[in-house]
Amino acid sequence: VEYRNKSKSVAKLAKVLGSSSIEKIANLNDLTEEVELCVKILSDIMDLLFVAPPGSTIRDITEVMLTVLRTVIQSTIAMDRESPLVGSLVAVMISVFRQMTAFHFEMYICHFATPTDLLDFLMEILLVFKDLVSRPVYPMDWSEMIMLQNSVILKSLRFFSHTIRDFFFTKFEHQAWNNFFHCAISFLTQPALQLDNFSANKRWRIVSRYKDMRRETGFEIRSMWFNLGQHKIQFVPSVVGSFLEMTLIPETELRRATIPIFFDMMQCEFYSARDPYAETKRDAANIRANFSEFENEMIAKLDNLVEAGRGDEHYKDLFNEIMMNLCENHSTLKEQGVRFVAC
């Protein structure tokens, strides 16, 4: 009953917070009192829904999601980071995503009228997620809130990775895939997830509750990469540096899962057409037959990261083991590949 009374105001909240256009949300900082009230009511609604009996809030979450989620996301983008309300607004957004089920995610994705509208939403939410892990709104000692936020972001990224594959592969949207990779890698490399920097007790608490989210995210990135198909070459060598940062994270299973991506990049460039517009582009005579762009980028980025104190002997040994094995077992790339790895 308490929720029902408050839910009558959901549509009004959206009007006060702003419509679905960024231009109208730009005045948020001049509406502090009204926005504060809206955020407080939304927060109360989400708290009530969270403690409600399981399965009883599907329609309620749907109403909140379709009515105010986009506005909350855009308000988060527009709001000054110095505002005392930004933490509460982010908490509302995280709470909505936390309580959304697979049914809700699918419904939300399908409610966009056009692919362009869906793409705009994905660009917004990936921007918000990347910003939240790059410039946290919560103090570092709020570890429980930060880990909860991270678990919800990871859950959402998993759903959105499938959305990108389903809607933006056939009619390929480079920016959607590119933004996903950069958002996911920023998420994976954020200080709050670097378990090796924590005490054994804190590390155990985090892993027992949330698992190692770096590993989980790395597996998702790997899956996305190998789903790129013929579009992989568009990301070589531009994402080499970001992927290298990911593989340097000191987690063995993550490294084993992601280092082979570099060999795949080598193959992509090696077999790509020297002249993509030539009629003989499928002819063996038209392939590049080298991976010099990848190699140059890899060496330059690795030098920079090592100078910055990244990397370790374990990484060097594992990289050599994995890459050497892949190169030695590939008849065409064997000679060039072994030479590259050995240097």
3D architecture notes:
It is a single chain. The protein is an all-alpha fold. The chain contains 18 helices and no strands. Helix 8 packs parallel to helix 10 (174-189) and helix 9 packs antiparallel against helix 10. The model is unreliable at 19-26 (pLDDT under 50). Residues 27-322 form the Dedicator of cytokinesis TPR repeats region domain. One of its GO terms (molecular function) is small GTPase binding. Pfam families: TPR_DOCK. One of its GO terms (cellular component) is cytoplasm.
Task: Tell me the number of helical segments per DSSP (H or I, 4 or more residues long).
Answer: 18
SSE string, helices as H and strands as E: HHHHHHHHHHHHHHHHHH
Oligomeric status of the shown chains?
A: single chain
- How many DSSP-defined strands? 0
Given the helix and strand composition, which structural class is it? mainly alpha
Mean pLDDT: 91
CA radius of gyration is 23 Å
Tell me the major beta sheet: none
What would you call the shape?
globular
Helix content: 55-70%
Total discrete domains = 3
Q: Show unreliable segments.
A: 19-26
Beta fraction of the residues?
Answer: under 5%
Kindly report how far apart the N and C termini lie. Answer: 69 Å
At a glance:
With 343 residues, this protein is mostly helical.
